[in-house]
Design a protein that fits this description.
mainly beta, eight-stranded antiparallel sheet, six-stranded antiparallel sheet, 3 helices, 14 strands, 14% helix
Length: 304
């Protein structure tokens, strides 16, 4: 009798912990399920544009951390190393970088673990630099399909509004859309179609067959359009924006130093060239541009 009671008591002491553990597991699974976001959930964040590299289709952006402690995870990292950014935010709006850590999913033996240490406001990127004094992080991310024209229309130092998935992975891009920073969140127009061209006119000055460069003079629509080249030296790289409609340019609207950022401050009627001279009295700009393949013979046939 005592043995039977003792066995029942021992059995009970074994059952309760087991039941408690199973209940805890079910509770954890249920809780985990409630915080998971829909796979298509997105959020918006803001950053300062630094450079646009069309060759690699990468955009370099600078953003601020909510505290200096949030940047300790990148100390010692080298440029180009993969990182995971966790933003501070609510629902679909980020308000600053909460923390940054190396992206171990691309370094371990079996990449793509997707164990980010968080479930939302995440961004995969490439580390560029960290500025503790400014409490800022500079990083790179791939430009999303369809946003290249919109990014071209922005200028270096301007702010952009970027849309990203809450939780990256499964081949989803880190950046889904890039727009001009606007409190109204109005999307930018997609700009001209890929491969679209325009025509402009200029007076021929010289042809240099050795360097395959053509020197041309063109008129600005206003003297204000030439203020961007004041003080420039011959040979400086410039970006010319023409005034025009559809595919016809009718004069130079503005000229700016081409800082190599790839952020031209416009979306169409653009021309990269070398500065030669500016004549305020004639309201004209003289510049050099490379002769296109197949056009050398046609240029030779023209006169100064």
């Amino acid at each position: 009798m005592l043995n039977r009671i003792g066995k029942q008591a021992r059995t009970a002491t074994l059952i309760y912990p087991f039941v408690w553990q199973v209940g805890l597991l079910v509770c954890m699974i249920g809780t985990f399920g409630t915080v998971m976001l829909a796979s298509e959930a997105t959020y918006r964040w803001h950053g300062e544009l630094v450079t646009l590299d069309e060759t690699s289709q990468m955009l370099t952006v600078k953003a601020r951390a909510v505290s200096q402690a949030g940047l300790t995870g990148v100390e010692g990292l080298r440029m180009g190393e993969p990182i995971v950014i966790t933003w501070s935010g609510y629902e679909n709006q980020a308000n600053g970088i909460r923390s940054v850590a190396p992206d171990l999913s691309s370094m371990i033996v079996q990449p793509g673990s997707n164990l980010w240490g968080g479930n939302e406001f995440l961004l995969q990127a490439e580390f560029v630099a960290m500025d503790a004094a400014q409490q800022s992080l500079t990083f790179k991310a791939a430009i999303p399909d369809g946003s290249l024209a919109a990014v071209r229309a922005l200028t270096r130092g301007a702010w952009a509004t970027v849309t990203s998935p809450h939780r990256p992975g499964d081949g989803m891009a880190s950046l889904l859309m890039v727009d001009a920073y606007d409190v109204t969140e109005r999307p930018m127009s997609s700009g001209p179609a890929a491969g679209a061209t325009y025509q402009w006119h200029g007076e021929l000055v010289t042809l240099d067959e050795t360097s395959q460069m053509l020197t041309v003079k063109a008129r600005a629509v206003s003297q204000a359009g030439l203020t961007g080249v004041e003080g420039l030296r011959m040979g400086a790289r410039i970006a010319i924006t023409w005034s025009g409609y559809e595919n016809q340019a009718n004069g130079i609207r503005s000229v700016a130093l081409d800082d190599g950022s790839g952020l031209w401050g416009g979306n169409e009627f653009l021309l990269q060239a070398e500065f030669v001279a500016m004549d305020a009295a004639q309201q004209s700009l003289t510049f050099k541009a490379a002769i296109p393949d197949g056009s050398l013979a046609a240029v030779r046939a023209l006169t100064r």
